[in-house]
From TrEMBL, chain A:
Residues 179-272 form the PDZ domain. Gene3D superfamilies: 2.30.42.10, Phosphatidylinositol 3-kinase Catalytic Subunit, Chain A, domain 1 (3.10.20.90). This is Partitioning defective 6 homolog alpha-like. Residues 401-411 have a biased composition (Basic and acidic residues). Belongs to the PAR6 family. Keywords: Cell cycle, Cell division, Cell junction, Cell membrane, Cytoplasm, Membrane, Tight junction. Residues 33-113 form the PB1 domain. InterPro entries: PAR6_homolog, PB1-like, PB1_dom, PB1_Par6, PDZ, PDZ_sf. It is found in: Cell junction, Tight junction; Cell membrane; Cytoplasm. GO terms for biological process: cell division; centrosome cycle; establishment or maintenance of cell polarity; regulation of cellular localization.
TrEMBL record, chain B:
Residues 273-371 form the Lethal giant larvae homologue domain. GO terms for cellular component: cortical actin cytoskeleton; plasma membrane. Residues 940-965 are annotated as: Disordered. This is LLGL scribble cell polarity complex component 2. The gene is llgl2. It is found in: Cytoplasm. One of its GO terms (biological process) is regulation of Notch signaling pathway. GO terms for molecular function: GTPase activator activity; myosin II binding. It holds the Pfam family LLGL.
Length: 411, 1006
């Protein structure tokens, strides 16, 4: 295993860099070397790492401890993947995955493992823990959860997985309803479902009433919706991101879902009511144990978002604030902004464009993401903007990104 | 924290909102869709039009208009004013009668429904017994005679709708007295016509469908005379002197029957004629004859054309002395009437008013050649289908006058006589500014409308077709028929929906009101730059081709080809003359267009990219391809698929039209046929709309089709690169949620003609949610939108604040987002779709003045969503202020047609031919304010002639005493003066009469 802290290659002017990537002709240096930028608390370190070099997780872990001069401190490692999701590094497999996916930069975020076992937020980085991520009175962390994941049981830790969906707000919803969050980012899978108009039967004091409703009509094979197992054909859609769809047309509901597609939360009334979450004991004891046992994935109970200030509030008011919270949410502020202040002639600039139109591709360096995604990805001022030779700008944008950082990442 | 609202501030803001915003639909411009009935009150000088959707519209002098809507969604089949009163009766398709009145309220008249009535027959009688087919509003103003399908005449007292059963004229009463030899006394059928004897109100003629006419005495309740016509009856006209009756028939004949004074049934058919005879003819649906003071009468009738050769023509024949003209209309004739001169409206016919399905045509019968009088309202906006519209507020007087002058040269063929319908008084204040509405049409014309006031008045028409070679030869469709043609057709009316070449269609318009530069762009990727010139000029327009694909390979355009440009010089009449043409390649429809007259630049976009053109140097400055390499659909050319839907729709409409022989008929089978056809169409439409009952839920991706379509393009002088220097810039937004910004370098003014303009890419923003960008606005340091080019130079706007930092507002279909400048970073946003599922369809920037304090006002965004709601969004804080439902959400074309003015008003099409005007502002409201005075009713029903009538001379009431004296003196002089011309003497005599009639009324009035 060869690990060496070689100097960071000088960064290229932004537009040229992006062109390189466009043509898939990386520099010789980046061919077999991964730029590692690691962050621990407020400190950054930059190292180079041989891409195909031998070595595993343990060596890497030690190296980082050394570089950050924190030997002996228990830390958790995470890396930002191309979608901006923070994924864990805790074994050889995902370490190699992280190294191989670096293109060429590998961004490592080190967090202190508090006491024992802190759950790395499995949620994507660009999501704030507001609004729907409410789990009631779960202030005590996930002790009971952890007890389930004793070594020996061959169940992976939740942080070893990328979350694609979750059942949320189990404790504040009626048992017949299910609130499902679909995480579009981080997967290339389509959401993959269709909705239709239909008639919903409601039981009221006057008797049975038929009202128009919106239902899931079809699941696409291999799509996200189907793969979660949480949504089914003929499930009635009651809410989209906390907003009641009653009285809205099919087109309106479609548009709402598309507009929220990056972080879609649908509340459904499943047509199959046999797999409902059963509240054991009284509803008031919102213990963690009560909400396990759903039909979802093993991670369904564990996937509650990490405690946030909002989650400590009363669940009822929290539920009421969903709409407001969501509309204020900046969770989709991932606009790509390409600033071309070095003023290259426009003819040559055309080339960079086609790259930028595809979000799924690696982000070229000339792209700055000023909002949450950007902030989490680009805490380096060099990466943030390419006001080459304009230190004033660089520092200001750096400050800006730090400030936004503070807003978003609550590790 | 936001949950704890600060109540004081909220309520203060609410109060302010009330002072700034209010929503009103104020007036409908244009021609009512599907008119179905026409009525006219000579005494009120008001015209009434009923439509198939149940609307009733009244028009008088320009600016005097009223509108009412029946609660029932049924077609209005007949409209009758009660003689000498302000009431009118409408008959609907559902057999209900409605009484409307013009009630004065706070000095303004309002059209109100005051009663409704449905005939009830004896129990057990079939519905045909009471199905009303003919209505006669008796001159007494107290009686309504209702003829029914069953052949009965019911007499009803108005306005209370009290049935006078004892006076009813039942079929049996009439049939018993029918002469035995009348075709074996067969069924007389329904009542087709009811007419009152002009000289004896007690006598009415009852015309039965079979052909029989009976003159009935209302007083004695008996038949006086039977007129045994044997042809199916279409209409009846009682000549003014009461001496004879004209009847028109379904075989294209009309007959003249003497009315015998004696009780003896000595009927005599004096004359029967089939005017276009020899071969079988179509029915003459209505006939009228009006006497003149001297000389032969005017005979007017509709229809009667030879069935085989001209059965599809819509004609009204006017015969006066030796002059015989068949006025040939382009759409079906609904009804017509003639306006007569003189205070009592019994003089010579002065104008013929014809309501056809698509327009109102008024013909001046007093001027040689019977020219058309231009209508000040009810103009057919859709004479060619409207493809886009553009509104320009506060036009400088100079440009206004030049446009009017150019328009006057185009309207020389119109009659010089004033508009003959003059009822009511227009009390609306003069509009505060001159507003222009420009409509682009399918045939490549741009029409300029005076949209300042209640009447949308045509000012000028620009045709762009002359620049191109088109299939149609302009000499081909001349109006005049060949010499000696029979029938002597004359084309009238301007409704011509069939475009020679759909590629000519105008898609985008931008007018600079200060410089008079206009740019228009069309369906086949053509962009014309035009200049207002007061002289005719002959010039060649050269096309500059712009390849928007920029060498992207693997694309083949499958749509229409570009238009052929005329290479030889073309003579352009005074007005807007094209001097520059840009041709996009591929020739896809132009989707975004803007012009900056100060920089002399035009920017445009299509589904493939955008470009910047310098119209001073006639040079392309910038070409940018926005096409996604994987987007093949963008090369299809939308025409092929859209056309097929349109075509099938058009065919279904034609089917319906064919099945509709005559709407005036109320035969059950016809109505049933019509309903059947309607149902079929509805089913077809429903099928078309509802076929995909499920909707796919998928995030937008860069691979979607048409992501490169340029939706909006914008010029701004702002801080693009650094915060100390503002530069000209160009912004473009695409369907895929991408915004491009270019920095423009303009040479100094003295070198503008020779040094090149350059554009350099400065920024690209890809919105995360990828929704189409529909608007881009730069806000100045005060948060106000940047003014229009040249606006500051003309002292019409405050210069923008260049001290504070500017902001970029990007409006996508889903949200409003404010970014900082020059460093683009998101500052705030307002989500629309994610919250309520509605999407932005149309957006505009408007200024709202407070109704309370003169000097307070604020800018806001006006937004129309796909749900048909209008919202006002504050600037620069992007917060929803107010919202109102405006358009039905199903009305997609209405929503798409909406344009906003700069002062918080808007227009949208409620039908192909009508704009609804609405206002969101408390200060800028254009609505009709008019007064119609109740005529003083004098005399009883036994009066032989209608009494002189005050309403008609309402405007004269305002006249001063002194003026009246002057008029009298003048008349005196003319009487004493030269009597060589009998004609002038006659005219003088008429005038004396008029003055005599007027004076006694004026004096007690004062």
């Amino acid at each position: 295993m060869v690990l060496s802290a070689v100097p960071q290659p000088t960064s290229q002017p932004g537009s040229r860099m992006s062109r390189q990537q466009q043509h898939r002709t990386p520099l010789k240096l980046t061919d077999n070397v991964v730029e590692v930028k690691s962050k621990f608390e407020a400190e950054y370190r930059r190292i180079a790492l041989k891409r195909n070099g031998p070595g595993g997780f343990t060596e890497f872990y030690r190296l980082l401890q050394n570089i950050h001069r924190i030997p002996g401190v228990d830390v958790l490692l995470g890396y930002a993947d191309v979608q901006g999701d923070l994924l864990p590094i805790n074994n050889d497999d995902n370490f190699h995955k992280a190294v191989s996916s670096a293109n060429p930069l590998l961004r490592i975020i080190i967090t202190k493992s508090e006491g024992e076992h802190v759950v790395l937020p499995t949620d994507s980085l660009q999501r704030r823990k507001k609004g729907l991520g409410l789990t009631g009175l779960r202030t005590s962390g996930s002790d009971s959860t952890r007890s389930k994941n004793k070594p020996g049981l061959m169940i992976g830790l939740p942080q070893n997985f990328r979350q694609i969906s979750s059942i949320i707000d189990v404790d504040i919803l009626p048992e017949t309803h299910r609130r499902v969050r679909l995480h579009k980012h981080g997967t290339h899978k389509p959401l993959g479902f269709y909705i239709r108009d239909g008639v919903s039967v409601r039981v009221t004091s006057q008797g049975v009433e038929k009202v128009p409703g919106v239902f899931i009509s079809r699941l696409v094979r291999g799509g996200l919706a189907e793969s979660t197992g949480l949504l089914g054909v003929n499930d009635e859609i009651l809410e989209v991101n906390g907003i009641d769809v009653a009285g809205k047309s099919l087109d309106q509901v479609t548009d709402m879902m598309v507009a929220n597609s990056h972080n879609l939360i649908v509340t459904v009334k499943p047509s199959n009511q046999r797999n409902n979450v059963v509240h054991r004991g009284s509803k008031t004891s919102m213990g963690n144990s009560g909400s396990v046992g759903s039909a979802g994935s093993a991670g369904s109970a564990l996937s509650h978002d990490s405690p946030s200030p909002a989650s400590q509030s009363n669940p009822i008011t929290a539920s009421n604030s969903i709409a407001e919270g969501d509309s204020d949410d900046d969770d989709d502020d991932g606009d790509l902004i390409l600033e071309n202040d070095c003023l290259t002639p426009y003819e040559s600039h055309r080339v960079t464009n086609s790259n930028n139109t595809n979000l799924n591709r690696p982000l070229p360096q000339s792209v700055s993401l000023p909002n949450s995604v950007g902030a989490s990805l680009s805490d380096s001022s060099v990466l943030m903007s390419n006001h080459n030779g304009n230190p004033a700008h660089t520092s200001s944008s750096s400050q800006e990104s730090m400030r936004e950082d503070g807003n978003i990442i609550t590790l | 924290m936001k949950r704890f609202r600060r109540h004081g501030q909220e309520s203060q803001r609410d109060r302010l909102k009330q002072e700034l915003f209010q929503f009103n639909k104020t007036v409908e411009h244009g021609f009512p869709h599907q008119p179905s009935a026409l009525g006219y009150s000579p005494s009120l000088q008001l015209l009434a039009i009923g439509t198939r959707s149940g609307a009733i519209k009244l028009y008088g002098a320009p600016g005097v208009e009223f509108m009412g809507l029946h609660d029932e969604n049924a077609a209005v089949t007949q409209v009758h004013f009660l003689p000498h009163q302000v009431e009118l009766v409408t008959l609907l398709d559902d057999n209900s009668l409605h009484m409307w009145t013009l009630r004065a309220h706070k000095g303004l008249s309002e059209l109100m429904e005051i009663g409704r009535f449905t005939l009830t027959g004896p129990p057990g009688a079939p519905p045909s017994v009471t199905r009303v087919t003919a209505v006669l509003a008796h001159s007494s103003g107290e009686l309504l005679l209702l003829g029914t399908e069953g052949g009965h005449v019911f007499i009803v007292e108005v306005p209370g709708f009290r049935e006078l059963e004892e006076r009813n004229i039942s079929l049996d009463q009439v049939a018993s007295s029918v002469p035995d030899d009348y075709i074996g006394r067969r069924n007389l059928e329904h009542i087709e016509a009811l007419q009152e004897n002009p000289v004896n109100p007690n006598q009415v003629v009852i015309g039965y469908g079979r052909g029989l006419m009976v003159i009935w005495d209302l007083e004695k309740q008996c038949a006086i005379q039977h007129i045994p016509a044997t042809q199916q009856l279409e209409s009846v006209w009682w000549a003014e002197d009461g001496g004879y009756i004209l009847s028109s028939h379904s075989d294209g004949s009309y007959c003249r029957w003497m009315v015998s004074v004696e009780e003896v049934n000595e009927e005599e058919e004096e004359k029967s004629d089939i005017p276009y005879g020899h071969f079988p003819c179509k029915a003459i649906s209505k006939i009228i004859q009006l006497p003149t003071q001297e000389g032969p009468p005017f005979l007017l009738f509709s229809g009667g054309m030879p069935r085989a050769s001209y059965g599809d023509r819509h004609c009204i024949t006017v015969i006066h002395s030796k002059t015989h003209v068949a006025l040939d209309f382009t759409s079906r004739i609904i009804d017509f009437f003639a306006i007569r001169e003189g205070p009592q409206h019994i003089g010579d016919p002065s104008a013929l008013v014809v309501l056809v399905e698509e327009e109102l045509v008024v013909i001046d019968l007093q001027t040689e050649g019977w020219p058309v009088i231009q209508t000040p309202y009810l103009v057919p906006l859709h004479s060619s289908a409207i493809t886009c519209s553009h509104h320009v507020s506060a036009i400088p007087l100079k440009l206004w006058e030049r446009v009017i002058a150019a328009g006057d040269l185009q309207s020389t063929h119109y009659s010089k006589r004033p508009w003959p319908i003059t009822g009511g008084q227009n009390l609306a204040p003069d509009p505060p500014q001159r507003d222009l509405l420009l409509t682009g049409h399918e045939d490549g014309t741009v029409r300029f409308w005076d949209a300042s006031g209640v009447c949308l008045y045509p000012m000028y028409k620009l045709s762009t077709a002359g620049v191109f070679h088109t299939d149609a030869d302009p000499n081909d469709n001349m109006n005049q028929g060949t010499e000696g043609e029979w029938p002597p057709f004359r084309k009238v009316g301007c409704f011509d929906p069939y475009s020679d070449d759909p590629r000519l269609g105008i898609q985008k318009i931008h007018l600079c009101k200060y410089s008079g530069y206009l740019t228009v762009a069309g369906t086949a990727g053509q962009i014309l730059v035009l200049e207002l010139n007061d002289e005719a000029a002959e010039q060649t327009v050269e096309a500059k081709v712009v390849d928007l694909l920029q060498g992207q390979e693997g694309f083949r355009w499958k749509g229409h080809t570009q238009l052929d440009v005329r290479e030889e010089p073309v003579l352009f009449p005074p007005g807007f003359q094209p001097f520059s043409l840009v041709q996009c390649q591929p020739p896809a429809v132009v989707t975004a267009l803007t012009l900056h007259s100060e920089w002399k630049l035009v920017a445009f976009g299509t589904s493939h990219g955008f470009g910047l053109y310098d119209y001073q140097q006639k040079n392309n400055v910038l070409i940018k391809c926005t096409l996604n390499p994987s987007d093949q659909l963008a090369m299809e050319g939308p025409l092929s698929r859209v056309k097929s839907i349109k075509k099938s729709l058009r065919q279904s409409f034609r089917r319906i039209r064919r099945s509709r022989v005559s709407l005036r008929k109320h035969h059950v089978n016809n109505a049933a046929k019509l309903q059947e056809a309607n149902a079929r169409l509805e089913a077809e439409l429903a099928e078309m709309e509802l076929a995909p009952v499920q909707r796919k839920i998928e995030a937008r991706s860069s691979d979607d089709s048409f992501t490169g379509l340029v939706r909006t393009i914008y010029f701004a002088d702002t801080f693009l690169s650094d915060s100390s220097h503002n530069t000209p810039s160009l912004w473009a937004g695409t369907n895929g949620g991408c915004v491009f910004a270019y920095m423009l370098r303009l040479p100094p003014v003295e070198h503008r003609a020779d040094e090149p303009v350059t554009a350099q890419s400065a920024k690209e923003i890809q919105l995360m949610h990828r929704a189409p960008v529909v608007g881009i606005v730069v806000l100045d340091g005060h948060g106000a939108p940047l003014p229009e080019p040249l606006e500051v130079a003309h002292d019409l706007a405050r210069s923008p604040d260049m001290q504070g930092s500017h902001h970029l507002l990007v409006i996508s279909e889903e949200q409003f987002k404010v970014f900082t400048l020059p460093k683009v970073s998101a500052k705030m946003k307002l989500k629309l779709t994610a919250v309520d599922g509605s999407r932005v369809r149309r957006v505009g920037v408007a200024w709202f003045g407070s109704s309370r304090s003169e000097d307070y006002g604020e800018s806001g965004l006006v937004v129309l969503t796909n749900q048909g709601d209008v919202h006002v969004v504050s600037l620069p804080t992007v917060k929803l202020q107010v919202h109102y439902p405006c358009v039905r959400r199903e009305d997609v074309s209405g929503i798409a047609s909406c344009v906003f003015t700069k002062h918080g008003q808007g227009f949208y099409l409620i039908s192909p031919s009508e704009f609804e005007r609405f206002s969101l502002s408390t200060r800028c409201v254009v609505e009709p304010r008019c007064l119609v005075e109740v005529p003083l009713l004098s005399g009883s029903s036994t009066q032989r002639r209608p009494k002189p009538d005050v309403a008609s001379s309402a405007h004269r009431n305002a006249r001063q005493d002194g003026e009246d004296a002057e008029v009298l003196q003048e008349i005196q002089k003319s009487l004493e003066g030269d009597q060589t011309e009998t004609c002038s003497l006659k005219a003088g005599a008429v005038m004396v009469m008029e003055a005599m009639v007027c004076l006694p009324q004026v004096i007690p009035g004062e």
